[in-house]
Amino acid sequence: MRKPIMAANWKMNKTHLEAIHYIEELRNRLHHKAYDRCDVVICPPFTAIRSVQTVVDADELPMAVGAQNMYWEDSGAFTGEVSHEMLTKMNVKFVILGHSERREHFHESDEAVNNKVKTALDNDITPIVCVGETLTEREAGFTNDKVGSQILEGLKGLDDERVGRMVIAYEPIWAIGTGRTATPDDAQETISKIRGYVREVYPGAADAVRIQYGGSVNTGNVDDLMAQEDVDGALVGGASLDPVQFARIVEYE
Ligand code: PGA
Q1: Are 30 and 40 in contact (CB under 8 A)?
Q2: Annotated catalytic residue 251
Q3: Cβ of 238 below 6 Å from ligand 1
Q4: Confidence of residue 33 (pLDDT cuts 50, 70, 90)
């Protein structure tokens, strides 16, 4: 049985004070049984990680903190980048890697994503690796080719044990921030394909790896998405900025 994982991707939103208020509100909204049923991960900007962690620690909240990016080198002359050690020393347990916004605006290649994935897994940070197709690729029938190659390249050189520990997020680019969600059937179909691609290379990991859906997940569609056999959680952007909405998403029915 795979434990579902619900992750909030705040992107470039919220100051550190706004982050504190958010976590306090989320704490008040979430029932304790929600944490038993699924993992809850908050991915604030780097500047708010410490503030989020302070509330989580003070109240012993069973939620994890994630980062939205990380560089693969240990340290050095890489102005503007953040290393695995900087994250683990702040008790960061997850990192979103290869988000489509980073691939598009910051030209992150599959090779860069692969380097980051290896570094994260070797340093006890669970990567949430994002894959997904554009609308043009979808309409041309290339969805499976695109996500298949992102999986093969992004997960190159690993092994069953490490792949089994990671999280993959299927995020069709046309559904991100657009209010257009993949239908539950479409999400299920592509996610089960992704599990199949993982199985081809890492047969021992395919049943263990958790695969989320992301792209305009909200309080109205989360229940149907989570009812799908292969959907192991959600990576939530816009709707995660409101603690009331994110609490409802975490407590999907
Ligand atoms: P969205 O973003 O929920 O606003 O579509 C999801 C994501 O980009 O992770």
Answers
A1: yes
A2: no
A3: yes
A4: confident
